[in-house]
Amino acid sequence: MVIEILRQEHRNIEKLLLVLERELDVFARGERPDYEVVHAVIAYFQVYPDAYHHPLEDRVFEKLKLRDSAAAAKIGDLAADHRRGAERLRRVAHAVENVLADRELLRQTVNDIIRDFIERERRHMAMEEQVFFPAAINALEPADWAEIASRLTDQSDPLFSEVVEEKFEVVRRHILQLEQEAEAERSTHC
After folding, report:
1. pLDDT in tens, 94-153
2. How far apart are the first and last CA of the chain?
3. Which domain holds residue 96?
4. Is residue 164 a part of any domain in this protein?
5. From its phi and psi, is residue 76 left (phi > 0), alpha (psi between -120 and 50) or beta?
6. pTM to 2 decimal places
7. 190 with 183: CB under 8 angstroms?
8. DSSP for 8-47?
9. Residue 35: inside a domain, yes or no?
């Protein structure tokens, strides 16, 4: 159950990375992206992963270190990886603010900062999916999973739950639009 929650959250994060990537493509073409969407994606990344997703991963990782220190060593310092991701996100937010304030900033620099964030988030999640989660599944015992699950909060994802926070509604609509476009494209290729 815990790993499935984490995997679902990764799928949700990937949807947001796709939205951000699409807005970045608009920016790279010299057009104006939907900054309301960009701000909402940044706000989501500033709140949900560090408050809920990463602490859950950290609890699993702590148990993994106790059960299989060699596997945990291969993963490295997960908390430091999360801190570096938060720092990259701060650079993204700062770059977007500079663009909106009409400060001198090369379009390529903004593009590089945001693409770096997207690519590194994807690599980090891939490592977790391919190395961390399987190691945890193999090493943790039922009592470990029960203890971790007992500490889950009732906090629902502000974007992907039944009750969407108002500030994230624009992003949710954008994601649904992207999914509809992707589905339409797939159906024309069948």
Report:
1. 999 998 888 777 888 999 999 999 999 999 999 999 999 999 999 999 999 999 998 887
2. 35
3. 2-154
4. no
5. left
6. 0.83
7. no
8. HHHHHHHHHHHHHHHHHHHHHTTS---HHHHHHHHHHHHH
9. yes
